[in-house]
Design brief:
The chain is mostly beta strands and about 120 residues long. About 10% of the residues lie in helices and about 35% in strands. It is built from two helices and three strands; from the N terminus they run αβαββ.
Length: about 120
């Protein structure tokens, strides 16, 4: 018997289901949507505040639309959709640079200091 933790199962739980039916209508239908997010209402992180750094720019746009209708009345229908996703963001990266002195850091030399 194999026991799999529930959190591993939930990570991969994604599905798409399409149903094709004979139904349709002889009228045109459509929809448009847009979701916009930027950094104006975001909070800065604690470490950035401590260091005096500003919040980095962030913009997200998710948009799309769908349309459907008849090609030949009661015989042939069409449907199409489009979805777009755009993200503009910057990332801050920090690095620790050791001092120029070779024995300035005990951890760098394995904790052993040599006196000459």
């Amino acid at each position: 018997m194999v026991i799999v933790p529930i959190n591993q199962l939930l990570i991969r739980a994604l599905a798409a289901v399409n149903f094709i039916t004979k139904g349709g209508s002889n009228t045109y239908h459509g929809e448009l949507f847009e979701y916009f997010r930027n950094n104006n209402l975001d909070a800065n992180s604690y470490l950035n505040n401590e260091a005096g750094r500003k919040l980095q720019p962030y913009t997200q746009n998710q948009f799309g639309g769908a349309a459907g209708g008849p090609v030949m009345r009661n015989k042939l229908l069409f449907f199409g959709n489009y979805e777009g996703f755009r993200v503009v963001q910057r990332e801050q990266q920090f690095a620790v640079v050791p001092d120029e002195k070779p024995n300035a850091c005990a951890a760098c030399s394995g904790g052993v200091h040599h006196s000459r």
